[in-house]
From TrEMBL:
Pfam family, one: Gamma_PGA_hydro
Top-level division of the source organism's lineage: Bacteria
Organismal lineage: Bacteria, Pseudomonadati, Pseudomonadota, Alphaproteobacteria, Hyphomicrobiales
Protein name: Phage-related replication protein YjqB, UPF0714/DUF867 family
Length: 200
């Protein structure tokens, strides 16, 4: 799918921050971990909520959120490989682990979370935690692999990160059954705790 904008400056020249879109962020107790979504709000629904809950108070959080009445996906979706909003780059640059939360279409698979990003160790650790909690994952998905070095998830200190692509139907179930969303959140948080020593 083609999107209207391929960089933040062009988007910001047309749409108004605080009305058409929002940017939320906080540093957390450990800025070495950033949990973020470049496609939050009405762009990829529930991505912001999931990222926020995974970050909690411990980890840095960032969300770029669409807020148009319609057309958010076309108008406000800057591709991950081109996402260059300054605050996101600043927070990512301080982190040794960046985890980006995304929503994808079902593509005839309404259950499987597609794992992406260049950080193989962290990606597989998070995938293992999700699998052990009852979720289905694909560590070699057919698309949205997040392997491009310029992908926002790979813009941290280590130049490698993790990307989760959660299907639409699963995200919808998270709204109706928040306990299921919490199951995913807790699994990812447990994996992060095992990857990043306290106090980093």
């Amino acid at each position: 799918m083609a999107y209207r904008f391929s960089n933040y400056n062009d988007l910001a020249a047309v749409y108004q921050l605080g009305t058409d879109y929002f940017i939320h962020h906080r540093t957390g107790e450990q800025e070495a971990v950033l949990v973020m979504t470049p496609h939050g709000g009405k762009i990829e629904k529930t991505a912001s909520i999931i990222a926020d809950e995974i970050a909690g108070q411990e980890y840095a959080f960032y969300a770029f959120e669409g807020n148009l009445a319609a057309g958010n996906l076309f108008e406000l979706h800057i591709p991950s490989e081109e996402f260059d909003e300054p605050q996101s780059l600043d927070l990512a640059g301080k982190a040794t682990l960046v985890i980006a939360i995304h929503g994808r279409k079902d593509y005839d698979d309404a259950e499987t979370i597609w794992m992406g990003g260049l950080d193989t160790e962290s990606r597989q650790a998070i995938g293992k935690a999700l699998t052990e909690t009852g979720f289905k994952i694909d560590d070699d998905p057919p698309k949205f692999r997040g392997r491009d070095a310029s992908n926002i998830c790979n813009r941290g200190k280590t130049e490698k990160g993790v990307q989760l692509e959660i299907p639409f139907s699963l995200r919808q179930s998270f709204i109706a059954q928040p306990e299921e969303r919490l199951r995913l959140v807790n699994a990812v948080r447990a994996a992060i705790a095992g990857l990043v020593p306290t106090g980093m």
